[in-house]
Design a protein that fits this description.
The complex is a heterotrimer of chains A (554), B (276) and C (319).
Chain A: E1 13-26, E2 34-47, E3 51-55, H1 62-68, E4 77-86, E5 89-90, H2 95-102, E6 107-110, H3 114-117, H4 124-134, H5 140-153, H6 172-185, E7 190-194, H7 202-219, E8 222-227, H8 230-236, E9 239-244, E10 247-253, H9 254-259, H10 264-270, E11 288-297, E12 302-312, E13 317-321, H11 328-336, E14 343-348, E15 351-352, H12 362-367, E16 368-371, H13 375-378, H14 385-397, H15 401-414, H16 431-444, E17 449-453, H17 461-478, E18 481-486, H18 489-495, E19 498-503, E20 506-512, H19 513-516, H20 523-531, H21 539-553
Parallel strand pairs in A: 3-8, 3-9, 6-7, 7-8, 13-18, 13-19, 16-17, 17-18
Antiparallel strand pairs in A: 1-2, 1-4, 4-5, 9-10, 11-12, 11-14, 14-15, 19-20
Helix pairs in contact in A: 4-5, 4-6, 5-6, 6-7, 7-20, 14-15, 14-16, 15-16, 16-17
Chain B: H1 9-26, H2 28-31, H3 62-98, H4 100-114, H5 118-126, H6 133-160, H7 163-171, H8 175-211, H9 223-230, H10 242-267
Helix pairs in contact in B: 1-3, 1-10, 3-4, 3-6, 3-8, 4-6, 5-6, 6-8, 8-9, 8-10, 9-10
Chain C: H1 3-32, H2 38-43, H3 49-59, H4 65-77, H5 91-126, H6 131-145, H7 148-162, H8 178-212, H9 215-222, H10 227-264, H11 270-279, H12 283-311, H13 313-316
Helix pairs in contact in C: 1-12, 5-6, 5-8, 5-10, 6-8, 7-8, 7-10, 8-10, 9-10, 10-11, 10-12, 11-12
The chains are: A alpha/beta (554), B mainly alpha (276), C mainly alpha (319).
Chain lengths: 554, 276, 319
């Protein structure tokens, strides 16, 4: 076991996982510890130089399977059955020292958050070459030269000197590339990519994705690419394996999975963004108008909103899109009065709203409700669902007792949850159910406008899809308008009537959906639109090529 | 909804012992075999059927003095803890919710008080104040309230920025609802377990002061004072001083066990349901 | 060393000086403005009004409070701590030997406690949730619940009286050899060690555990490093700052413990001196000694903060 067998050839089977079973012991507080099965009887094979995408929602076991190829279980996770055959021998039988010889030499790992995965106390170069030096596959000078070549290939700025920097001196997108270089530096046979672009903004993601894809292709390394985003994995993988609850759902070539899925679950994942939504035309009388609003934090020090104007029409949805730091959530805070604007005004139903929250009447407050990104912390954990939904009924309409309970039951019905949930606490609900309760709480006030701040971005795609459908249904029933804040353009397409694109505190493009999404585009909207992964093989090449033409043209 | 079978053994020991000490304190005159200051035998008589724990440095029954001592110790510690808690948590919550200059002023003053070790500061102040129980409770309570202030302010500040509090503010709820219905229920479990720790600290602090001769003055005595009275016997091999000292340790450990259990029981909750 | 670090350290030092001044005011105010009359306490209840007035004038008690404060502060800064009321002797000369004794005792305890606490903390992390970890945390629970004098008299009862290994009373005098001194402080140093050990160990455990759960430790493991290498190369550099912080905070805690321990073992140090003079209501001594204790405490806290600043790579290598 000690020595790595000579590589037979560039083809042939590299990894063969047979009947893998992975368990963990969980310690629910106040209850006896029990075993849970995270991965149940999963088998896969990977040829040299090929890329297998592992896809599934949270809890599907995809990271756990990926790490098993390095004989690693995160936080008490145990491999309890099956074989992991790498380069012709079962690594699980190699003992601790046998596994250590494989890690960092034959298999390397790229984590989701490179910012946390680099040691803050050491320079990047020392960390990049560490594994190569440890396993004696290269001398220091040689390894560093290799690293610089990789930095250059991955498109990092100043490749000769970036290695002397510390992790906190480099941006998140760049760190993700450095981590890829770190994995490639030991010239391994296999790299496990664990959601390497998930934490990045969409316009950064496309560049990192292209860099990773090119690096894989040029070095001929094999890869397990783990992600929850089917459109992303379709760009890099030769084959895709769909997992759910630790079990295999479907495994096939990339084209077959995204074009002709055989399983219903795969089909649902593929068609997740396809919601039919008929765009409504703007009316002559918007009920809420934001006019030339400028807002800042710290007494005018940092301007986060610059001269922003938008209108919201009754029963329609205005989507505000932008990347992190674009000011889209600040716009919501300005409208609600949590961050009173320095300049500009907000009119509601023909009269001007007080800028500060304290100056608004109860009726004004009732008309504007909010739903948050993190449903967990948006509900008081000490209140049951009936109180959470019932409080606005009491507060705004003075409903009590049976009358209130009846209305709570009605609202629970509207969000497709039964009466039985009334006495549950938030911690006893799933992520999607929590978000539904938050929507019911907003709806209870019978508002004209609900501000939805990234309401689907913390949820798995299928659950998010359900929430979007619910919101559209409720809009048709209750004639409520939405201000829908998101970074996800696919969501925007499914739900918006009009769109405002924000960039660095300003609105760069605004109008009805059909106009905003039709060319000619301004440069930023073009960049944003072309960066959204599409479920189509070869999209990445086209997107990069069109962007290159664009930049060459400018 | 407390399921007795689910209480872990550690917590059982803690509950039973704490209950026992409190029982002694409450019913001291009824259960003590002799009077508190009554001289009933020889100096430092060994344990016997008449005097279960022997007698002390003046020939008083040690068991009776232990029982009365429980009363003094627990009473002063409870009052000091109550003072520390009401003062600290009211100021802490107010500072967190009101903010602004009030928060800055109180927080800086608390920082200043905490930059001097508590025992040293208490010694400095007690050098000029009259020695009586009221002074003792005030000094202990005020000095200890700084820690309660820090904790309750920190907890309230954390909760105050959570989305559900923001949602209540956006709904237009008043300050009363926000403090008592949104923040307080979520701050309760860290505060309750802190209550236990502050009580232990008050017991240890009082004992240290009395041991140094600056706490409860004779002829009344708490357990710390009884250690001081009997400490000279140690070098002659007479363990009388170890009994009150051990009692302090036992009280502290048992309250600790209970506080631990309460903290575990309430932090992991499934929402509002305690699952104990 | 780059400029942001120097700036932060200077800021912290300036804050420390400010804090010391504020503390001196607090101690002065706490002893001078509260009820109680120094002249009365010196002369006793039977003093005539005339003699009281004379003494007040002699001690400068008739001057306004701020004048007396600045006179006192000026004296402190020039090394003149004033005279004790009870003996009339200068406080500075009475203290010097005692300060050395206290520092010797505290240092002995620290030399034992610090490595032991770090070692046990490491063991607890290495065998997390195992029997060693559980035993260590049970010991910590017990030891934080024990009053200092319980530990102290248990040691005396067994080691000095029953088995007669060490003296029960720690007499030290000039001209003792280092070895004799060590023997004299053996029991008080052990008691002090036990008092701070549990806290220090618990906090060390938490600090190291925090580092060991970072994602970069996983990265190192996935490179195939041996567990010891992972700790040496990746955990250690990041754990220094929190551990130094823990150690300093607990050394500050030693100061409180030392007062009680000195009284138990009748050890001629600052703590016993302070307690004696509190009982005698000798205000100038209490002010001076109280301020020295507070100053040591504050300085240790500043050292802890500075250690954390220096060890932070973000500050050492700014963008």
């Amino acid at each position: 076991m000690a020595d790595k067998p000579a590589k037979e050839s560039k083809s042939g089977r590299l990894l063969d996982i047979r009947n893998l079973r992975i368990e963990a012991t969980v310690y629910p507080p106040g209850e006896a510890p029990r075993n849970v099965t995270l991965v149940d009887d999963v088998s896969l094979t990977l040829e040299r130089g090929k890329v297998l995408g592992l896809i599934g929602e949270s809890g599907a076991g995809k990271s756990t399977i990926g790490l098993s190829s390095m004989g690693y279980g995160r936080g008490g996770v145990r491999i309890t059955g099956g074989e992991v055959i790498l380069n012709g021998r079962d690594i699980l039988k190699g003992g601790r020292s046998g596994i250590r010889k494989i890690r960092g030499r034959e298999v390397c790992y790229v984590a989701q958050s490179a910012a946390a995965a680099f040691n803050p106390a050491h320079q990047l170069m020392d960390q990049v070459v560490e594994a190569a030096l440890l396993h004696g596959t290269a001398r220091r000078a040689e390894a560093e030269k290799r690293a610089v070549t990789l930095f250059r290939k991955l498109g990092l700025p100043d490749p000769d000197n970036i290695g002397r920097r510390y992790p906190h001196q480099v941006s998140g997108g760049q760190l993700q590339r450095v981590m890829t270089a770190m994995a490639l530096c030991s010239e391994p046979d296999l790299i496990v990519f664990d959601e390497p672009t998930t934490a990045l903004d969409v316009t950064t993601q496309i560049d990192v994705l292209a860099a990773i894809r090119d690096a894989i292709r040029d070095t001929g390394v094999a890869a397990l690419y783990i992600t929850h985003d089917l459109a992303v994995v379709a760009q890099v993988a030769d084959e895709i394996m769909v997992l759910r609850h630790g079990k295999l759902v479907e495994w096939g070539g990339t084209r077959q999975i995204i074009k002709e899925p055989r399983q219903q679950y795969t089909n649902a994942l593929v068609s997740v963004h396809e919601i039919e939504h008929q765009e409504k035309k703007p009316t002559d009388h918007p009920f809420l108008s934001v006019k030339n609003v400028t807002a800042s934090y710290g007494n005018g020090q940092v301007k986060v909103l610059k001269n922003v104007s938008v209108d919201i029409h009754p029963g329609q949805t205005l989507a505000v899109v932008g990347e992190s730091g674009s000011g889209k959530s600040t716009l919501a805070r300005a409208i609600t009065g949590l961050l009173p604007p320095m300049e500009g005004s907000i009119t509601f139903g023909g009269k001007e709203l007080s800028n500060a929250l304290s100056g608004r009447s109860k009726e004004d407050l009732r008309q504007l409700q909010m739903v948050y990104q993190m449903a967990d912390v948006a509900m008081n954990p000490r209140q049951p669902v009936a109180t959470i939904i019932g409080r606005p009924l009491e507060f705004y309409f003075g409903m009590r007792g049976k009358e209130r309970d009846r209305r709570v039951a009605e609202l629970l019905d509207k969000i497709e949850m039964g009466k039985g949930f009334a006495d549950r606490y938030p911690a006893e609900l799933s992520g999607g159910q929590k978000q539904r309760v938050c929507i019911a709480r907003a709806l209870a006030a019978r508002p004209k406008l609900i501000i939805c701040d990234e309401v689907t971005s913390a949820l798995d795609p299928l659950v998010a899809n359900g929430i979007l459908k619910l919101l559209l249904g409720l809009q048709a029933e209750e004639d409520v308008a939405y201000l829908f804040i998101t970074h996800d353009l696919a969501t925007v397409k499914s739900i918006a009537d009009s769109i405002a694109v924000m960039y660095r505190g300003e609105i760069v493009r605004y109008g009805p959906k059909s106009e905003v999404l039709a060319p000619p585009f301004d440069p930023y909207t073009d960049l944003l639109l072309s960066s959204v992964p599409e479920m189509e093989i070869g999209w990445l090449d086209k997107a990069i090529a069109s962007r290159r033409m664009e930049s060459a043209g400018n | 909804m407390l399921d007795i079978k689910r209480i872990p053994p550690g917590a059982w020991i803690g509950l039973v012992l704490t209950g026992f000490f409190v029982f002694c304190a409450v019913f001291a005159p009824v259960i003590a075999p002799y009077g508190n200051a009554e001289i009933v035998g020889d100096v430092w008589a060994p344990m016997s059927a008449d005097h279960w724990l022997g007698t002390d440095n003046l020939g008083r029954d040690l068991l009776s003095r232990m029982i009365y001592g429980a009363r003094v110790t627990i009473l002063i510690a409870v009052l000091a803890t109550a003072l520390a808690f009401s003062l600290g948590s009211i100021m802490g919550f107010t500072a967190a919710v009101v903010g602004g200059w009030f928060d800055t002023l109180v927080s800086r003053f608390v920082d200043l008080l905490m930059s001097i070790p508590t025992l040293i500061f208490a010694l400095v102040v007690l050098s000029v104040l009259p020695s009586n129980i009221v002074t003792l409770i005030l000094v202990m309570g005020i000095l200890d309230s700084t820690r309660v202030y820090r904790l309750s302010r920190a907890v309230a500040v954390d909760i105050n920025v959570m989305d559900f509090v923001e949602a209540a503010k956006l709904r237009g709820e008043g300050r009363g609802w926000i403090i008592f219905r949104e923040i307080l229920p979520n701050a309760l479990s860290p505060l309750v377990s802190e209550l236990g720790l502050r009580f232990i600290y008050a017991v240890l602090f009082l004992s240290a002061l009395s041991f140094l001769g600056l706490g409860v003055q004779p002829p009344a005595a708490d357990w710390g004072g009884m250690v001081k009275e009997n400490k000279d016997g140690i070098v002659f091999g007479i363990p009388a001083a170890l009994i009150p000292a051990g009692a302090i340790a036992a009280l502290a450990i048992s309250v600790n066990l209970v506080a631990d259990w309460i903290l575990n029981r309430t932090t992991d909750l499934k929402g509002g349901r305690g699952n104990g | 060393m780059s400029s942001p670090i120097v700036k932060l350290i200077l800021q912290r030092l300036a804050l420390g000086v400010l804090l010391l001044l504020a503390v001196s005011i607090l101690i002065f105010v706490g002893t001078e403005i509260l009820p109680g009359d120094v002249a009365q306490s010196i002369l006793g209840q039977s003093a005539t009004p005339q003699s009281l007035a004379n003494l007040r004038e002699q001690l400068g008690l008739d001057d306004p409070a701020y004048v007396r404060y600045f006179r006192w502060l000026g004296g402190l800064l020039t090394g003149d701590l004033g005279n004790a009321l009870t003996s009339g002797l200068p406080i500075a000369s009475a203290i010097s030997g005692r300060l050395a004794n206290t520092l010797f005792l505290a240092a002995t305890a620290a030399v034992i406690a610090v490595p032991l606490a770090i070692l046990l903390g490491l063991l607890a992390v290495r065998y997390r949730n195992g029997p060693i970890d559980k035993a260590i945390s049970a010991f910590a629970l017990a030891s934080t619940s024990f009053p200092e004098f319980f530990i102290g008299y248990l040691l005396v009862y067994f080691f000095a009286v029953k088995w007669q290994i060490f003296p029960a009373i720690s007499t030290v005098f000039d001209g003792m050899s280092f070895w004799e001194r060590l023997q004299a402080v053996a029991l008080p140093a052990t008691a002090l060690t036990l008092v701070v050990l549990a806290h220090m160990m618990r906090m060390t455990r938490a600090a190291i555990l925090n580092v060991m759960q970072s994602a970069y430790i996983e990265t190192a493991e996935l490179k195939g490093l041996r567990p010891l290498e992972v700790i040496r190369k990746h955990a250690f550099p990041n754990a220094i700052a929190p551990v130094v912080n823990v150690v300093m905070l607990n050394l500050a805690y030693l100061i409180v413990g030392v007062v009680v321990v000195e009284v138990i073992f009748v050890y001629p140090g600052m703590g016993q001196y302070l307690v004696d003079h509190v009982t005698k209501r000798d205000v100038p001594v209490v002010q001076a000694v109280g301020l020295i204790f507070a100053a040591v405490y504050i300085i240790l806290n500043i050292v802890a903060d500075i250690a954390a600043i220096v060890a932070n790579p973000r500050l050492r290598h700014p963008k």
